[in-house]
Amino acid sequence: MPRANRVFLPGHVWHITHRCHRQQFLLKFARDRRRWRYWLFEARKRFGLCVLDYIATSNHVHLLVKDRGEGEIRRSMQLIAGRTGQDYNRRKGRRGAYWEDRYHATAVDSGRYLVQCLVYIDLNMVRAGVVGHPGEWEISGYREIQVPPQRYRIIDMQALGELLELPGTNALRDYHRGCVEEALLSERLRRDGRWSESLAVGSAEFVNGYREGLGVRARHRETVELPDGYALREPAYAYDRSSGPEMAALRHDNGADWVD
């Protein structure tokens, strides 16, 4: 497997995906998913991680975060991945890797692209056929946005509302619910690889600007036109059968190869 290249540029919204080792169902029990959420909360509290959405499934997680340029994403991923794995291995008397050695991050444009990514995350367990509606899955940003907890809130509702240009929490909640319901009615439930196989997704201006920002690191990476927007893709040889495309963008060693 080739060593991951540094593809992080500060200031963007990032869709992060991370799978359990060998795609095992190490998060199949609610207590383990709750433990992952606990460490996500700790990352927000300790490092100021700006979380816009999240979901923990049975064998992988999704995070939508906004970078503040203070290295908080790198430190947060170290904490969340490391402590979740340690807790599980200690409880089970298990040794060995808990996560795949790489997690993937995609830079997400604003506007409709941000909305599409948000809904894509929310509908994860509906696509899997586990639930009929995202509100039925406990460890999810959808439930937190729609029914905010009294304590231990993770999602930065103000930041999300500002990014979507919505005037307040109630408007955000109504808009978010409407977007999800529209997607459910239109049956837009197929897996969309652009959110987990690209380095950047958005308008041509956004994707090309991101590519230019990478400088020499953009070598061999190409901008491709999609039915709805553009994406910056890794070359095919960056992947192998053991890792899968979702693992190829960033290195994970209970750390990450981010550029602070």
Strand segment tally: 8
- Overall mean pLDDT: 86
> What summary fits the major beta sheet?
8 strands, mixed
Tell me the number of helical segments per DSSP (H or I, 4 or more residues long): 9
What is the radius of gyration computed over CA atoms, rounded to a whole number of angstroms?
A: 17 Å
Task: Spell the H/E element sequence.
Answer: EHEEHEHHHHHHEHEEE
CATH superfamily: Transposase IS200-like
Terminus-to-terminus distance: 24 Å
Strand portion:
15-25%
CATH topology: Alpha-Beta Plaits
The dominant shape is: globular
Q: Just give the CATH class.
A: Alpha Beta
Portion in helices = 25-40%
Label the CATH architecture. Answer: 2-Layer Sandwich
Number of domains: 1
Low-confidence segments: 1-6, 237-260
Structural class estimated from helices and strands: alpha+beta
Briefly, what is this?
The protein has 260 residues and is of the alpha+beta class.
Describe the structure.
With 260 residues, the chain is of the alpha+beta class. The protein has one domain: 2-Layer Sandwich (Alpha-Beta Plaits), CATH 3.30.70. Helix content is 38%, strand content 17%. A hairpin with a 2-residue loop joins β6 and β7. It is globular and about 50 Å long. The two termini are 24 Å apart. The N terminus and C terminus are likely disordered.
